[in-house]
Design brief:
four-stranded mixed sheet, Immunoglobulin-like, mainly beta, 1 helix
Length: 110
């Protein structure tokens, strides 16, 4: 009888797309926009294992290049769309667009 009492709530949770398990390993996310000649925000702090999405929001072409930091990475040059990177190493990253001098941001990973 006890099994039937649990079956309805669990099947309802499944139908709603909910998990019966706690979200302890949930992926953290953050977004940085590339606007015409600047990053928004100009600095950001995230936790380790956060997936950062760089989203093109202006009209000019840009790229995302780490010039200083624990891990180097770079995106292709594009005018729209996004680029995602999971940051697993702690430290401060200096990120620039190599096309636009002075277009820079700091991303701190704790």
């Amino acid at each position: 009888m006890r099994l039937r009492a649990l079956a309805l709530p669990l099947s309802l949770a499944a139908a709603l797309g909910l998990s019966a398990m706690p979200a302890t390993g949930a992926t953290r996310t953050a977004t940085v926009k590339l606007k015409d000649d600047f990053f928004s925000p100009k600095s950001k702090t995230v936790s380790r294992n956060t997936v950062v999405t760089f989203r093109w929001a202006g009209r000019a072409p840009h790229n995302v290049v780490v010039t200083r930091g624990p891990v180097k990475f770079k995106s292709k040059t594009q005018t729209r769309g996004s680029y995602r990177k999971k940051l697993t190493r702690k430290g401060t990253y200096t990120i620039v667009c190599t096309i636009h001098p002075g277009m820079e941001m700091k991303l701190k990973v704790r």
